[in-house]
Amino acid sequence: AHDHTNKKADTSPRCTAEWYNYKSQLLSHFSHQPGGVVVPVWTNEIMTGKGIWKNVHVGTPSHIQSFDTIELEASLDCPGGYDALCPIWDRIVDLKVCCSGNEHCGSELGRWITPFRRRVGHWVTDISGLAPLLFSQNEYCNLSMTTDWWLPKPWMPSLNIRMYNKKVYPVAPVELMPLFEGGTFDKNYNSKYKPINFTIPMGTTNVSLVAVITGHGSDNNGCGEFCITSHHFVINGIPNVINFTAAGSALGCADATPTGVVPNEHGTWLYGRDGWCDGRQVNPWVVDVTSQINLQGENTIVYYGWFQGGNPNPVSNPGVIFMTSQLVFYEPTN
To answer: Cβ contacts of residue 2 below 8 Å, gap of 6+?
Structure first.
């Protein structure tokens, strides 16, 4: 139950001002990056339910490793001159990558949630830890962007891959290990996850955990969109936890306009969601877990997801957790 009468009217001027400040800072960010390389992918490309594809030149793995920061710059427009011509519903936009000779072909590189009928979204996502997904034997990668096939109106995404060398990181990602994926958030959700035992590749000096997690659907508890879930990655007995406490709150996403949430959307855009907001990128959760890792021997990682401190157990219509997760291994840059 969400009885938030007049919240939209009350927050509109504040959210609009915050978003314009965000947009100004975003454009300044792009214009003040030293030695940057921009790989253009799409510009206002019509995206129907079948999605869009592009084969792009990314350079050699050593070229990519010469940059310590990699970002996705994305925006969403729609045909016609009015917001009312944009698709109505908030849906997932998913970006996958497949590079020549890369064993991780088909992995997710980026995720966004569309706004309710607004065409001004412009976002940046730091994917630096996922650089190994772009390693290619022939210097080319195929990028595919999709959303729900049944949407009656198309979006027009634009995408650039931006690479910078800020010279602030003495290590570079060289390899990654896929971990756990999501699934139906019901009483059996955690039963499918088994411990993963692993050793660290030779030469590794640093390790990070990178995960992208969003909850969707609506069971009797509001899961997974409007319920608070927590996600636990336990490495050698040490827990790493992300807890989506804003889910279901009256202004959880309205308060996030300084982070890129498109303001003044149609629908229930103001309410907090489980790891996401309408009209914004989904940021990877990145944790430096180097101190938790045995660099010389065996390691174990365990995952489980909770609702209200325990296993989910909905009565009907269970929601779903969309999750990608991996360990990223780093080596010194010199």
So the answer is: 226, 248, 250, 268, 271
Give the alpha-carbon dihedral of 65, 71, 72, 75, to 10 degrees.
-150
The backbone torsions φ and ψ at residue 61, rounded to the nearest 5 degrees and listed phi first, read -55, -40
Distance CA 307, CA 298 (A): 31
CA distance 260 to 274: 17
DSSP string, 204-216: --EEEEEEEEEEE
pLDDT tens for the 334 residues of the chain, in order: 444 444 444 578 899 999 999 999 999 999 887 678 999 999 999 998 789 999 999 999 999 999 999 999 999 999 998 898 999 889 999 999 999 999 999 999 999 999 999 999 999 999 999 999 999 999 999 999 999 877 788 999 999 999 999 887 899 999 999 999 999 999 999 999 999 999 999 999 999 999 999 999 999 999 999 999 999 999 999 999 999 999 999 999 999 999 999 999 988 999 999 999 999 999 999 999 999 999 999 999 999 999 999 999 999 999 999 999 999 999 998 7
pTM over 0.85: yes
Alpha helices in the chain (DSSP H): 7-31, 61-65
Per-position b or e across 112-148, b if 16+ CB within 10 A of its CB:
bbbbbbbbbbbbbbebbbbbbbbbbeebebbbebbbe
Q: What is the C-alpha separation between 114 and 121, in angstroms, rounded?
A: 8
CA distances from 312 to 137, 168, 316 (A): 43, 42, 11
- Give the C-alpha separation, 205 to 42, whole Å: 36
Calpha distance 207→289 (Å, rounded) = 6
- Is 210 within 8 Å of 326 (Cβ atoms)? yes
